[in-house]
Design brief:
With 229 residues, the chain is an alpha/beta fold. The protein has two domains: 153 residues, Rossmann fold (3-Layer(aba) Sandwich), CATH 3.40.50; 53 residues, Alpha-Beta Plaits (2-Layer Sandwich). Helix 1 links the parallel strand 1 and strand 2. Helix 5 packs across helix 6 and helix 5 packs across helix 9. The chain is globular. It binds flavin mononucleotide. The site of flavin mononucleotide has 19 residues, from helix 2 and helix 5. Flavin mononucleotide (FMN) binds next to helix 2 and helix 5.
Amino acid sequence: MKIGFGITGAGHLLLDSVELLEKLMAKHDVTVLLSAAGEEVLKMYGLYERVEKITGGYYNELIREKEQKFSYPITGRFSLGKYDLLIVSPATSNTIGKIVNGIADTLITNAVAQAGKGGVKTRIIPVDLESGDLDTVLPSKLELDLCQKCEVCEAAADCPGDAITPGIEIDLLKCQGCGACAVACPFSAISAGKIITIHMREIDIKNTAKLHDFEGVEVLGHPSDLRII
Ligand SMILES: Cc1cc2nc3c(=O)[nH]c(=O)nc-3n(C[C@H](O)[C@H](O)[C@H](O)COP(=O)(O)O)c2cc1C
């Protein structure tokens, strides 16, 4: 099968999505499409290199929104029906909100729009599925209540991306999610993979519900619900 796999900028379900991608790559031609935020967030969670490593070659490319211009000519492959399937996992509330309002101004929303026009089946795995609270995972975080504001910060010294301002914060846009800081800090003041509970907004849940009316689009609750591997 020829599959397009879109990754947007959600931390939630991101690891499960990369694991699904790895399984699909072993059996199918998979073109990976990264939204600009998807690329940033993959790096924050230390997953970007994992995706980069498995991509390459015709129809197995890594397409980065940051390297595209405004008309996303690559998505012409979807309008021409060159793919059997488009998967978007995870799909942020931003991306879902745009899709259900017919907006196609990002790499991923454009791919979904063109897939609709080209008759390519689409499977979307949204983060915002059900009302209520959701447990989700954070990237590396400096816990200020544990930080001893050492004269020489060992976590900052070991950070390859120079992302840490000691005693203040981690700049997530510089963080590569390698976890070296958490190992280096003798006071365990850096958490990685901390679980927090967030409240789902009703507008996002309503937007996700609207996806069900889209021809050719199926909504899945989790990457493991995809049944084509
Ligand atoms: C660490 C981190 C995690 C995020 N996780 C989520 C998430 O789980 N769900 C979501 O809707 N947005 C999340 N965002 C916000 C999106 O990245 C942001 O809305 C972005 O504009 C989405 O763009 P995209 O839909 O084009 O990928 C996260 C941002 C950061 C920095």
